[in-house]
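Supplementary Methods S3. Complex input for the adenosine-5'-triphosphate-bound model.
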Amino acid sequence: MDHQLTVLIVDDEEGMRLGAQRALRNFTCQLDDAECSVSFTTQMVDSGEAAIEACQGETRPDIILLDHKLPGITGIEVLEQLGSEGLGDSLVIMISAYANIETAVRATRQGAYDFIPKPFTPAELRYVVQKAAGRLVLSRQARALAAENRRVRFEFIRVLGHELKAPLGVVESYLDLIRNRTLGEDLPAYDEIVGRSLTRLQGMRKLILDLLDMTKLESGQRERSLEDIDLSAVARSTAEAMEPQAAERGISLTIAGAEHLHMQADPAEIEMILNNLVSNAIKYNRDQGSVTITIGEDAEAITLAVSDTGIGMTEDERERLFGEFVRIRNAATKDILGTGLGLSILKRLVQLYHGSVTVDSTPGEGSTFTVRLPRSGE
Amino acid sequence: MTDAKTILIVDDDPDFRLPLRLQLEAAGYTVVEACDRDEAHATIAAQRPAAVIQDLMMDQPDTGFTLCYEMKRHHPDLPIIMVTGVASETGIEFETVTEEERSWIKADVILAKPIRFEQLKRELDRLL
Ligand SMILES: Nc1ncnc2c1ncn2[C@@H]1O[C@H](COP(=O)(O)OP(=O)(O)OP(=O)(O)O)[C@@H](O)[C@H]1O
Ligand SMILES: [Mg+2]
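Predicted complex, serialized as structure tokens:
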């Protein structure tokens, strides 16, 4: 990215102003820390009063080259009058012919960022301006990032609040029916709504557990224990745990590919990855369908693929999938419960191994999720 | 002919529809349900309900608005009761409807969640 910064040159000597302008006119500096380059446009004024006016205008200069000794108010008085409010995030470089410690200290106290003694060479000027530009761009980038993080956080909390509120509302409305004896005095009449309430509360519990998992991953607080694990063994134990859920809908679970492939990994993490994928492959499958876990390897990575014969998804849906709380809503998924956090947790887990997840899918035919875990990331 | 006692409930959450259905049935209404826009239109054509209760927030943020608008265009006399979320106590707003948005919603009545059945019943009595 390239930036343009405005430099306001405040000096009563025309020669100085023009010299500074010439030094900066075709100057572009590369800021490695901020990964960008900066070029400059200049504005010039010949008094402190005019400088204050320029700072109060619509577009505040980014960098102010401020001479101390001016005909009206001095450079330091300009700083005093502007105050930190008036300066905003503009950086001031004080220029003075009578370079002395006292002026420098006073100027710094009033908010000047740097100091350059007069006379100076174009190279010296460029050097201090580049330093100021680097500082300015970095702090702006940090601010933008912080704002973006706040926004993402807020959005997360907003959606989370909504997801937690929905089941509460549902349970409340069912309890109201019971309190008002809407369905009469016979208890069995209420079985269905009690069942529905319990299901929604379970969903809420799962949401909270998923959330805690995710927070733990995010904060890096989960204790990881990397050990030598046999992937087929982990796959078998996942398949066993999921078997009842699959059998209920006549879905067959198969493990294919390499036998006894080993890697250094945290067994709980690999299990979570497989659980998430297999649970989706069952949930979004058709009755009597099948799910296959394939373990493979190539030169750089170990691959875990989970394919199903389910509802599949469109390309547009595939892109949104890994977002927090994202659930694809359509006629085929409307009665399937879920929090939409499963795949975002999976994504974080895979990142711990510097791996990647890809999805292949044909609507109505099925999907294959492939996780690649590079050996170097072990 | 519309059936003065048939009410259509439109929402994608079955747990929003069920308690409403049970309360309305206990109060002597017949209830038909739809979970999305297409089903809603089909049900109106087939069952001729006397009124519609719909949630503003369906699967996608705009569907509630759109459905309401379409129903009013095709059936100007069909009363619509729109249910919406309200600002939470925490000050963070969840799907709150602003005054301006309200003016765009073509519903006859807008009720805030959680809805009280007595209030809903009163509105139905008034509209039918
Ligand atoms: N194998 C699959 N086939 C088709 N759609 C899928 C598949 N896996 C995921 N999806 C879609 O992606 C969405 C997000 O999946 P994810 O696992 O994150 O959430 P979920 O299954 O809805 O909830 P949970 O947090 O309980 O796992 C699902 O709601 C579903 O629409
Ligand atoms: Mg899932």
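The two ends of chain A are 34 Å apart (CA to CA). Chain A has two domains: 3-145, 225-374.
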